[in-house]
């Protein structure tokens, strides 16, 4: 039997609606390169390159293409472990809806 699709639909539905406001640690970033093992190099609006990890709920359900946009939640520098600087909190799928927000 095939796996149920409710996890896929829930993750897809969650990524279509943009949040009303961003926290200070969140930022919209452009995906530059897939590094492997659910790690991605992203470019922040300040042109800084960061290495971020894909959230567990999006793994094997949502595909992220190079040049796409993601919502990155950066960890504070004192809590950082290794090279990973944050996590992908959301994937921008409906870019037209996201561009209407004030933080874009």
From TrEMBL:
<dbReference type="GO" id="GO:0003743">
    <property type="term" value="F:translation initiation factor activity"/>
</dbReference>
<feature type="region of interest" description="Disordered">
    <location>
        <begin position="1"/>
        <end position="24"/>
    </location>
</feature>
<dbReference type="InterPro" id="IPR039294">
    <property type="entry name" value="EIF1AD"/>
</dbReference>
<dbReference type="GO" id="GO:0005634">
    <property type="term" value="C:nucleus"/>
</dbReference>
<keyword id="KW-0396">Initiation factor</keyword>
<protein>
    <recommendedName>
        <fullName>S1-like domain-containing protein</fullName>
    </recommendedName>
</protein>
<dbReference type="InterPro" id="IPR006196">
    <property type="entry name" value="RNA-binding_domain_S1_IF1"/>
</dbReference>
<feature type="domain" description="S1-like">
    <location>
        <begin position="26"/>
        <end position="84"/>
    </location>
</feature>
<keyword id="KW-0648">Protein biosynthesis</keyword>
<feature type="compositionally biased region" description="Polar residues">
    <location>
        <begin position="14"/>
        <end position="24"/>
    </location>
</feature>
<dbReference type="InterPro" id="IPR001253">
    <property type="entry name" value="TIF_eIF-1A"/>
</dbReference>
<comment type="similarity">
    <text>Belongs to the EIF1AD family.</text>
</comment>
<dbReference type="GO" id="GO:0003723">
    <property type="term" value="F:RNA binding"/>
</dbReference>
<dbReference type="Pfam" id="PF01176">
    <property type="entry name" value="eIF-1a"/>
</dbReference>
<dbReference type="InterPro" id="IPR012340">
    <property type="entry name" value="NA-bd_OB-fold"/>
</dbReference>
<keyword id="KW-0694">RNA-binding</keyword>
């Amino acid at each position: 039997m095939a796996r149920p699709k409710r996890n896929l639909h829930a993750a897809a539905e969650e990524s279509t609606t943009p949040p009303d406001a961003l926290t200070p640690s969140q930022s919209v970033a452009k995906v530059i390169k897939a590094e492997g093992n659910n790690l991605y190099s992203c470019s922040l609006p300040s042109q800084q390159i960061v290495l971020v990890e894909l959230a567990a709920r999006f793994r094997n359900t949502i595909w992220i293409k190079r040049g796409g946009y993601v919502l990155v939640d950066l960890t504070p520098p004192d809590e950082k472990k290794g090279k990973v600087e944050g996590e992908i909190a959301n994937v921008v799928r409906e870019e037209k809806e996201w561009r209407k927000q004030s933080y874009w």
